[in-house]
Amino acid sequence: MKTPVYNQKGEEVSKADLPADIFDIELNPDLVHQVVVAQMANSRKSIAHAKDRSEKRGGGRKPWRQKGTGRARHGSTRSPIWRGGGVTFGPTKDRNFSKKINKKMKRKALFMGLSSKVKDKELVLIDKLDLTKSKTSLMIQVLNDLKNNLKIDMKSILIVLPVTDLKVSRAVNNLPKIKTIRADSLNVLDILNHQYLIILEDSIKVIKETYL
Fold first, then answer.
1. Is residue 81 domain-shared with residue 149, that is, in the same domain?
2. 48-99 pLDDT, tens per residue?
3. pTM
4. Which domain holds residue 73?
5. CATH number of the structural domain spanning residue 108
6. How many domains does the chain have?
């Protein structure tokens, strides 16, 4: 698969081959949905927690004697039927939301996400991204050059880097709906959450070595 390669000004400089077994996969929406749900569930944290009677402080002394008072029998003021007592069936931090998903399924869904960006013409391949300083203004200028020269409206962007580049990652920190990610950490959820993919040419090699 031949695709044009641009510089950071949006000018076409060459063409590159995209491996068909990564960027030309037929879409299976059910598989992609299953992987996305599993990924979201695995990143979910159990925050809500209600204390049961064993976690409530106090209640060690029997409120009154067992017999002879005419009142109901009670052993602790932290019983769920008492005010200030524990909660019977409340949410707890022990709840596990994780879902198991096979590695082959995750990899196949990732390839489908990349293939969908190619088919929708929402993948931009650039030769390199070179910033003199980690300035947001410089990153905005690069993105504006790409938008104007390629005549596309990029509302949200995922920039795929071959290795960690602190200049680029710091330059996009203050830009909404723009995120950087390493090529060996790609996932289908981030791909689907952003409209356009900007991939550095060296990232293609990293994707092949990591996932094939």
1. no
2. 999 999 999 999 999 999 999 999 999 999 999 999 999 999 999 988 999 9
3. 0.84
4. 47-96
5. 3.40.1370.10
6. 2
Identify whether residues 120 and 206 lie together within a single domain.
yes
- Give the strand pairing for 2-6 and 12-17: antiparallel
The mean pLDDT of the chain is: 94
Ramachandran angles phi, psi of 95, nearest 5°: -65, 135
Residue 72 per-residue DSSP state: P
Backbone angles phi, psi at 119, to 5 degrees: -65, -35
What confidence score (pLDDT) does residue 1 get? 78
Burial 156-195 (b: 16+ CB within 10 A, else e): ebbbbbbeebeebbbbbeeeeebbbbbbeebbbbbbbebb
Cβ pair 194, 156 in contact under 8 A: yes
| Same domain, residue pair 116 and 183 | yes
Amino acid (1-letter code) at residue 84: G
Cα–Cα distance for residue pair 85/180, rounded to 1 Å = 48
